[in-house]
What does this fold into?
Amino acid sequence: MNRTLPPSPNLHAALGATASLVTLIALSIAWEAWLAPLRPGGSALVLKAVPLLLALPGVWRRRLYTMQWASMLILLYFTEGVVRGWSERGLSAGFGWLEAMLSVLFFVCTLAYVAPFKRAAKTAAKTAAKEAAREAERDAEKTAAENVSNSAAKPPREHPQNADV
It folds into this structure.
């Protein structure tokens, strides 16, 4: 059986994903609590950092499953950043564009980290499917050979229609 080594992780991509996520969490909290909240004194939008905080331990430990769902989640933050960058004025607009940029950075770094593992899994699945097909083909040939040898060993039976009466 042909076994390949697992892919080596892209540590720079993992570090970039972690750094951009931590920065985005800090930005979300500071933006909505002190720097430019929607309402003076802070905003409940500070809670938007909670899903990012939930993803942080898995991203920090470089868990593929967390990286995958966090890369989909981050698209919501990208959307919010673009909308607020276009629709708001002043400091809040700048924070919106910064949020969009950090979201893109996280997304790209996450994909760069996950891609080699996905390719390796796809290759392993193809190899396993080919091996299973070869095994099934060998089993079919073996069964056919057994059937031929069994039919050659038995004398032909006479049918009652052909027998002399």
User: Anything to note?
Assistant: Residues 11-117 form one domain. The chain has a mean pLDDT of 87. The radius of gyration is 31 Å.
